[in-house]
Amino acid sequence: MKLALLPFAAFSVALLAGSSAMRAQAPQAPNPGVQVLVPQGNAQDQAEAQARQAQQQAARAKLANQPAPRTPDGRIVLGNTNTVKGLWIGGGLGFCNANRVTPPASLNPGLGRAGADGARAGGAAGAAAPAGGARAGGAAGGPAGGRAGGAAGGRGAGRGAAAAPCTPVPYMEWTLAVSDDRRVNELEPHTRCKPSGGPRQWLTPYGAEFLELPDQKLAFIFDVGGPHTYRTIFMDGRKHPEKLTPTYYGHSIGWWEGDTLVVDTVGFNEGFWIDRGQLPHTEKLHLIERYTRTALDSMRYELTVDDPGAYTAPFTGTSNLRWENGTELFEYICQQGNEADTLMVGGGTKADRSSPIVP
Fold first, then answer.
1. Helix axes 138-149, 151-158, angle to 10 degrees
2. What is the pLDDT of residues 122-157, one digit of tens each?
3. Pairing with 137, which of 3, 76, 155, 223 sits 20 to 30 Å away (CA)?
4. What is the torsion angle, in degrees rounded to the nearest 10, for the CA atoms of residue 250, residue 305, residue 90 and residue 188?
5. What is the pTM of this model?
């Protein structure tokens, strides 16, 4: 009996030794720019992480107000340079909360609770705008029409809120219902390691890297968290193909307008969320993104959403991407430790596994 246990005991000792070695070789803490509301090691690990974050904030303060980097020929650089390296992290796009369910705070950063209540009451006017009422003006006149249709919502959100006036979302009734449901269940595909197109790439605690290859006339956006995927932006003057197989990232083409990179994307599937739940979409989704690096540590991000299958008019939101200096892409194991359990089961106590297809 003792002899039979020896191999298992030896294996256990080897396993423990191997685990200790792996722990010694592994990074002492996650990316110092991480802002994840989950446990991160013991008290000593957390103290060390806080110290690193303080050092990083001090380094970021030194970069504040420095001009955006440029190439020798004067063209602005949206990503890393030979001397400054880092990642971009996004934030809310300033859309009003017109929903009938209180949203998680992450959906409306900067919108105070009083403002959220006002936006929910006033923004319903924009949500209930007649289908197609503002779309007749086309893409150029659509955003203005969409905002006009929900002007009462924007003003309602502004009263009592510390944040700037928000942009009403011209929901259809079914997209408003879907958005309400997402606030309760939060079963986001991104937490199941699926790629997420559009602004959702920037809305992770780890950020993303922007890489442009001017000679190849290509640009890439590399995800750090999630499924370790990347998005390709063609900058060689091509048009969108007439026939596209819908994908998570769609088909992106880009061009420069002065210091602003404009990215036009179509061909999305419906298997991801544009953001953290506020904006449902269909395969008719058409996104226009405008990237303007206003300083070394800040980039203005403007998003126009045009989806006639989900909204009564196009609409536009803006935010600033924050430069996380000194960080870089790192190995990320999606769902490691199942620490984001509330994002996997939402408002329930367990996940529905009756379907073989995981959302």
1. 50
2. 444 444 343 333 443 333 333 333 333 333 333 333
3. 155
4. -70
5. 0.69
